[in-house]
Amino acid sequence: MLRYTARRLFFALPTLLAISLVVFALLELAPGDPMAQLPQTISADVRAQMREALGLGEAAHIRYTRWLYQLAVVEPMVGIDALFGTAFSEGAPRLLSWQTRAPVMALLGERLPQTLIVVGLAYVIGVIVAIPLGVWSAYRRGGAFDRAATGAAMLSYAVPPFFSGAVLIWLFAITLGWLPSVYDTGLIVRDWDSLVAQIRQMALPVLVLSVQTTAQISRYMRAAMLDALGQDYITAARARGAPEGRVLMAHGLRNSLIPVVSIVAVGAPQIFAGAIVTEQIFGVNGIGALLVSSVQATDIPTIMAITMVLAVLIVAFNLMADLTYGWLDPRIRYD
Amino acid sequence: MTRGARIALWGLSLITLAVLLGPLLWPLEAGAMNLTARNQGSSFAHPLGTDQLGRDMLARLLAGGRASLAVGLAAMSVSVVIGAAVGVAAGMVRWLDGPLMRLTDLFLALPLLPLLLIAVMLFRAPLSAAFGPEMGLFILIVGAIGATSWMGTARILRGDVMALMGRDFITAARAGGTRAPAMATRHILPNVASALTVSASLGIATAILAESALSFLGLGFPPDFPTWGRLLFDGTESLASHPGRALWPGAMITAVVLCVTVLGDSLRDLADPRGAP
User: Fold this and answer.
1) pTM (2 decimals)?
2) Where do the domains of chain B lie, and which CATH numbers do they carry?
3) Contact B214, B220 (CB under 8 A)
């Protein structure tokens, strides 16, 4: 297990480096100029000074190395300082947003909780619903329930989230008036009433996101369960006279969860990226909204930081998926 | 072919025909404004009503469908060509397999939607200048979606090609002196055609969804160039007063994606009946 873990870790680092290079190169090679949005009245030498101040004056590889240093060394130091009250990062240049001149990571820190609450809750609910759905679909394969679940999963893949979100807002917020249509980011849960308000405003975005998750994960769960139910050990368990519930739960479910666990881990960070759209519809002021507004304002340091944070999340969750898979199924460690 | 697949085929053909022939038959133009007939409801002259500038919604829906389907098909072609090239190369050539699969893994680990947003932001102005605002954005969006959605095709094809490479007819072809390019086009590609078709049909669905997501975030086509995603985005603002403006394009996206997905699944079951329900 140790060797397997070490090998996986060894692959994760180059991946991250390569991604950072892709992100940097994309912004570097693009013919678009980050200063293109500035008014024409600014004179050439002021423009040059501004380029200097934004750190655009130097060669690409120097800027890349410095960016990487800031991302991998300075920003974690700041985090450590904030946690333990030390002063490792004093004087070190931080990643600054061009839009607000504030440290990018502080912006991210403000926005991340909003995203985490909505997206995280939606993911957890989606997975919890998906597992029994997939198990029952597989157990009663081809039956009415299975066909209905298959149809529902296909439909929820085909309905884009901004459409289902719009329909839900129209139905529940505008026509029926049961739920608020816009997410109030400033709401602080202090007492019972504000908790109810928070739940009410989270209901629609969480519903939209969790339905997508359920649709995907339940398909994988069904396939894995079908696979498990066709194995000899299921026949053996039945032949021994094990009760059907035990065959299904102890023999079928436990084995079929192995691939599903890694799918769940791999899917977790992708939903952050997917949440960009959902945040936009409901006005959740999270990391996705920050990305969209920075893209519109050509705030390149913020865009790069968000993309890299998402990339780190994706790689970390992939690593976690590999490790849990190797832990649950020792056979694949020796590939 | 199952009943569902047959319905999907009919639905898709109907929508495609309507979108292709509709602008020829329907007299009103998608961009024609009529400020005396703004925000109208459904009537004989405007079956789906008009928008806030008095443009006929049916004409816009048909024009939008043309654009959305064109983006879907073009982006799918890009992604299938890249995916097939990578998959076949990795499956046929042993020393290319490792690097190409690392590349595929790398692309799978990229946060794709943020990168799509960045690509559109950065390349919008130069490509618009080079090819005109509409063609430039079309190239950009098709290229960006295609370049970020080929990984599934590549992985599936690599597996299939590797399995093929061990078969006798490949050994025979090689013994007969067939060179690698001829081998790929004459022996490998015809044998993975079914897997390629399935990827292609699912690729159309992904591409249409991706385009509509970009349009929805305001980073797709310009407002005077309607696609279903753009129409849906414009329609959500007046959801309370005129729900049809958002619901129709949304329903069309859903219908096309659903039909294409059902067809793709059915094709897969035809090609590989073991997995069929």
Assistant:
1) 0.82
2) 55-275 (1.10.3720.10)
3) yes
